[in-house]
Amino acid sequence: MSEQTKIALVTGGSRGLGKDMAISIAKKGFDVIITYRNKEEDALQTVATIEQMGQKAAALHLDLSIFSSLDSFLQNLKVLLETNWNRQNFDFLVNNAGMGATVPFENVTEEIFNDFLNVHFKSVYFLTQKCLPYINSGGRIINISTGTTRFCVPGYSVYASMKGAVEIFTKYLAKELGTKGITTNVVAPGPIETDFNNAAIRSNPNMKGALSSLSPLGRIGQADDIGGVVAFLCTEDAKWINGQRIEVSGGINQ
Questions:
Q1: Residue percentage of the chain with pLDDT more than 90
Q2: What domains appear along the chain, each with residue ranges and CATH number?
Q3: pTM of the model
Q4: Which residues are bridge partners to 188 per DSSP?
């Protein structure tokens, strides 16, 4: 009897970094479920790309800003696994979905704070908890953070604070889930040229140039600089990496 193909759940996998993560994971021979918030068409295009590679894929709607929606998402996930894979479990959880905004500290409102709290920490915390019974032994949890937990960028106080909480959360997961054979790590990208935060870098040549000058490699990151690292953490080659923060930033601000 052949071994079952492993399945990854990548939140926010319809575009940007998440899309490249999903495709990179599929290149390793794994099946992929992605989530999307608004861009269903983009999500289905990512699914089609993965299927053209010979792996199974599917997309589910998930809005992490609506905390009460997590239970219905889990129900939809269970139905999808049973219907498409005849399985009740999956193997890799990549907590990637996020939102961006550059907001100076003195302009942060409670509403902005709560939005970032829900999307970047509270929903990540409890989605992981709710998924845990369905993650196979030997599975992986990969949380996406940011280089701005190490170096400061004005206007990122809320975003980076929530990601800092995720990094501490990751250490505790690594400690508490080890008996289940599940590893947990953080991947922390540096500046990346995507449509994140209203394409703040892509649409601003001056910012792009300034950030490139801070990197020893003389450029800012691209989506495919990150996806391969996340995919690697899903492989057997990474089985002994646990509780680590892996910054993938080209050496910026060293």
A1: 81
A2: 7-246 (3.40.50.720)
A3: 0.93
A4: 247
